[in-house]
Amino acid sequence: MPGPTSTPVLITVTGPDKPGVSSVLFAVLTRHGVDVLDVEQVVIRGQLVLGALVSTEHDPEGLQETVEQAMASVSMRVEVEVGVDPLTPSRVGSTHAVVVLGRPVSARAFTEVARRMAALGVNIDAIRRVADYPVTGLELHVSVADDTPEADAALRNALVEVASRVGLDVAVEREGLTRRAKRLIVFDVDSTLIQGEVIEMLAAHAGFEDQVKTITEAAMAGEIDFTESLTRRVALLEGLPATVLDEVAASLELTPGARTTIRTLKRLGFRCGVVSGGFTQVIERLVDELGMDFCAANELEIVDGKLTGRVTGSVVDRPGKAAALRRFATAYEVSMAQTVAVGDGANDIDMLSAAGLGVAFNAKPALREVADTALSHPYLDVVLFVLGVTRAEVEAADAADGLDASRL
Asked: How many Å apart are CA 185 and CA 357, to the nearest integer?
């Protein structure tokens, strides 16, 4: 805090970013013996914005003149305000992080988001780009003036509405340690970690793909009970040779960005796994290949080398998925607030609701309604941007490991 006889001075330097600008400015400030109260700097496409709030005990006008001359010597523009209120911070402590994702993010769409927040009295404290591909991602740190559960809900509901209307994905999270402390993530498999539905691939070998697909769609939309749907679909597989499981496992196609997502999360120390209504015999190879930590799925019964049309053990259904998430969190000593769940169907509702962060990935309406955020682009690594990881950080880590991003 400035003393009773000191004068606060705000200095804002702008211009092309180059080495030495900060050292020239602070050399002047050193000669004048000022106290530094706050400093912020940002570089946008090679353009520097450097702000310094200082307090001086004598001759603030002389300080202003010297700073202006020094900045002119390095071809930078400068604005000096003498006597600003030092109690007004340059950045209010943010209450929420809002991640805006689009392909692209148009000026019109972003304006609608900003207007809706302004109408709620929400201030944008800072903005940074977290991704330029496969989508454009912008992370906004915002402050809700009346930080109550009602205001939190109003912000989330308003942004869901405007995002849907302008064609953006918007994720809203509370700021603080909880956001940065996520440590365990579970993925649904079918139409989330991989493209397509495993049971439909199996049914294609039995000649019942269309019938199974119809049942699957009804189950994922929440129109019929998952356990009932699983029983009906698996019954159609009776008599298939068990070798078909290996054939389907070998043909699985990962969702774009899946490898990048798992690789990056593992670097961050996440425990990663799958909780699936699919079948262990098909997905366990995928789990091993990606180096994931755990797996929960259904077990197809096999007798004399053929599928019996039944599953053995407890069914991993809608409540079973949530139970599996809790079980793995306990096993790895991770609190539920530190967990993330990603899925696409109605049978993922309980799991996403139980997780600290529930992400609906190209999901059915029943799941989008309860998820913390809904993503509509077909790239799984968008989940990283929601977690605050930037594309630049991912690429730098890959480069440090000698990985060629163009081949991943």
From this structure: 9
Cα angle for residues 158, 163, 168 (degrees, 5° grid): 155
Q: pLDDT tens, 308-337?
A: 999 999 999 999 999 999 999 999 999 999
132 is catalytic: no
Query: 393 phi and psi, to 5 degrees?
Result: -65, -40
CA–CA distance, 125 with 132 (Å, rounded to integer): 21
Three-class DSSP category at 81: strand
Task: Please say if 190 is a catalytic residue.
Answer: yes
The active-site residue out of 38, 59, 169, 188 is 188
Nearest to 320 by CA among 181, 182, 186: 186
- Which residues are 359's β-sheet partners? 342, 373
Cα separation, 232 vs 310, whole angstroms: 9
Q: For 222-235, what is each residue's pLDDT tens digit? A: 888 888 999 999 99
Q: Is the pTM of this model over 0.70?
A: yes
pLDDT tens, position by position, 37-54: 989 888 888 999 999 999
